[in-house]
Amino acid sequence: MSDTVQGRSPYALYDAEAPTGAPSLDIDPFSLDVLDDPYPAHALLRDAGPLVWLPQYGIGAVARYAEVRQALLDWESFSSARGVGMEDFVRHGRFRLPSLILEADPPQHTRSRAVLNKALSPAVMRGLRERFASTAEAMVERLVDQGSFDAIQDLAVAYPLEVFPDAIGMSRDGREWLLPHADLLFNSFGPRNMLFTRSLTGARFDWVEQQGRRENLLPGGIGMSIHAAVDAGEITADEASKLVRALLQAGLDTTVNALGAALYCLARFPDQWAKLRANPSLARLAFDEATRFESPVQTFFRTVARPATLGGSALREGDKILMFLGAANRDPRQWERPDDYDIERRAPGHVGFGAGIHLCVGQLLARLEGEAVLSALAAKAAKLEICGPARRRHNNTLRGLASLPLAVRR
Fold first, then answer.
1. DSSP label of 28
2. Whether the predicted model's global pTM rises above the 0.90 cut
3. HSE of 346 in the Cβ direction (CA atoms, 13 Å)?
4. What structural domains and CATH numbers belong to the chain?
5. Residues 6+ apart with CB under 8 A from 195
6. What's the pLDDT tens digit per position in 252-304?
7. What's the CA gap between 347 and 157, in Å, rounded?
8. Three-state SS sequence of 337-395
9. What is the Cα gyration radius of the chain?
10. Could you give the angle at the alpha carbon of 341 between the alpha carbons of 338 and 345, nearest 5°?
11. Beta strands 59-62; 320-324: pairing state
12. Which residues sit opposite 101 in a β-bridge?
């Protein structure tokens, strides 16, 4: 991200014309009202048609599962390399730090993904499991002893901020800067609104760039395993630094919001909490279902890279398409009882972690963290109850809470 983005919006999409046959809806998905309660807007978008035009921004939008998944899978027609935010890098220039994974397409993405898949493999996750579990147990033990705590700040934030940078091999100094930087990154995918402007003050670009460098990483971590690919001739040293930085940028905030969503769901639905207490092996499913149900990553953009058809509408090269992942994950055309949180639901194919070549590369790590925390909580707490007002944290892309007071009983 450069400091030139503080001024007027660098894109001009407002004069774009709606594709033939696409209905227009006067909905601002980045307004605080919609961010607070997106579900009525999601229903309107799904019911209006398979592809809808949002004239305020001059963009297309898809909210049904089938079309969202199509756009995620067809990377040749719907490009990530041209920006997963509202801007098209080809027409408007690149203003975010270069990405070799999130905002990249093959062949660059293929090389990057191969290195990250190895660094975040199931075997690596097995090596982290015991440490993640013991940290979760100690943290939950302390919180249960207190009788009440803030489920977001004291657990959903504190736990990933402890184990995730450790797993990467980051030093303890400065890791509190990771969250403000991620807040800006995900805000930057939307319009240049108040949320984006406000998040500019918390980011330290030079600092986050330095964290990916080999000399700043501890031995034995995921970061150094990525740099080992340089020695093997698979990527360059500069690419390795950028990949570590990408993990640190995007791998923490998303897990914080997913873990917070799971805690919020279990506290609101005592029957599901009782199921988890009776069968702690459901912890991973409980976390996964919360990812579908709350969709911590609500939206992503794609740029039409070649003439294409989506939802029956002909799209032009350069059109921007906003994919409503949260709406797709509750589409009744795809899911039975989509508005029920059910930890016994088997929901393969939900798009809470994306789909296709851009399926979240850190999903195994996020699921391991979620499973560790929910298993520890189910083993130690008999009662889980909201004991104060939940406060939402607004972001142009992410859905999560800033505070959730919980009362617990051993």
1. -
2. yes
3. 0
4. 3-409 (1.10.630.10)
5. 30, 187, 394, 395, 396
6. 888 999 999 999 999 999 999 999 999 999 999 999 999 999 999 999 999 99
7. 26
8. CCCCCCCCCCCCCCCCCCCHHHCCCCHHHHHHHHHHHHHHHHHHCCEEEECCCCEEECC
9. 21
10. 80
11. parallel
12. none
